[in-house]
Amino acid sequence: MDHTLSQYYIFYIVALQGNISKAAEKLYISQPAISKSIRKLEKALNTPLFKRNSRGVTLTEDGELLYQHVQEAFAQLEIAEQTLERKHALGISHLRIGASSTLCKYVLLPYLQSFVAANPHVKITISCQSSYKTIELLQEQKIDIGLIGTPSSPKTYEFFPILSIHDTFVATDTYLNNLSLREEDSNIYHTATFMLLDEENITRQFINNYIKDQSLQLDNILEVSTMDLLIEFSKIGLGVGCVIKEFVQTELDHHVLTELPLGLDIPTREIGFACLKESRVLPPIQSFMEQVAAFETGNA
Predict the structure, then answer these.
(1) How far apart are CA 266 and CA 107, in angstroms?
(2) How many CB atoms lie within 10 A of CB 30?
(3) Mean pLDDT of 170-194
(4) Are the C-beta atoms of residues 159 and 272 closer than 8 Å to each other?
(5) How many CB atoms lie within 10 A of CB 208?
(6) How many CA atoms within 13 Å lie on the side-chain side of 93?
(7) pLDDT at residue 92 in the model
(8) Rounded CA separation 73/81 (Å)
């Protein structure tokens, strides 16, 4: 390979600008130097990369193919530069964590307590957003670690699962008894008030898809904004709440709530800590992930 990175960069800028003179202004080099570099690259690759016209240049079919790969390569280099910049700026002083309010309360706290005990001088920022927003913040590198469900793009993230969760339907015995007394229809899907998280919630969409796959229909739905409210509304007998079983285990053990025997086999889901793969080497992220691993093995 007798062509250099600088030739690829010149090719990349010319393709972006669509004009050699504009590329020359951006690169602070002469137009003849750019044309010479492009000719050398075309000769090395044995194919024309641009078509010249009166208004500038356009990519050939081979040029378009090369541009797609070169664009991705330079994007990765930019990410690497940003990662290094953040590494030098942050050191081990700052860690930004994102999670939904539900996962903050029921899952994050013990891991956070363990990390703070081992790293008392690290500044920690917690962003309580929906899981969708947490994933978005991760992608934008506005947080370092997100507590989320299994990512849909595993190649992008380093994911450390910590808990399997089970979605279930619960209610009070009083609500169920009153329902059976006032309703002649024995089909609970038609008669009960089912309390679900709002439509934008990942858990709600998961349940919606499962119900659709089972060809079921819930006639009476009450949307609730948070899992905590779902649990509290279920406990006062407002309806049947679709909750995460692990988060109401105490209520189930003390018979405050009853798990409905609906005969549903809802698949379990994994939740865990995720970070961008290129950010895994940053000291605060690496330290947190190591602490999580130690916590899981009982060595924290």
Answers:
(1) 21
(2) 10
(3) 86
(4) yes
(5) 14
(6) 6
(7) 46
(8) 13
Q: What is the pLDDT of residues 8-45, one digit of tens each?
A: 999 999 999 999 999 889 999 999 999 999 999 999 89
Give the span between the Cα atoms of 275 and 220, in whole angstroms. 39
The first and second tokens of residue 214, run together, are 């089972």
Residues 179, 173 contacting (CB under 8 angstroms): no
Is the full-model pTM beyond 0.85? no
Q: What is the pLDDT of residues 266-281, one digit of tens each?
A: 999 999 999 998 888 8
Which is it for the CA torsion 12, 13, 16, 20, positive or negative? Answer: negative
Contact 41, 11 (CB under 8 A): yes
Burial class (CB in 10 A: 0-12, 13-18, 19+), 298: exposed
- CA distances from residue 121 to 87, 89, 95, 135, 205 in whole angstroms, order as listed: 17, 16, 11, 27, 39
Residue with tokens 């700052």: 94
Pairing mode, if any, of strands 50-53 and 56-59? antiparallel
Residue entry with tokens 């998280």: 197
Alpha-carbon gap, residue 216 to 20, rounded angstroms: 62
| 124 bridge partner residues | 95
Q: Letter for the amino acid at 138? A: L
Q: Cβ atoms within 10 A of the Cβ of 242, count?
A: 24
Q: What pLDDT band is residue 186 in, cutting at 50, 70 and 90? A: confident
CA 76/CA 79 separation, integer angstroms: 5
Helices vs strands, H then E, count in the chain: 13, 12
C-alpha atoms less than 13 angstroms from C-alpha of 145 in its C-beta half-sphere: 30
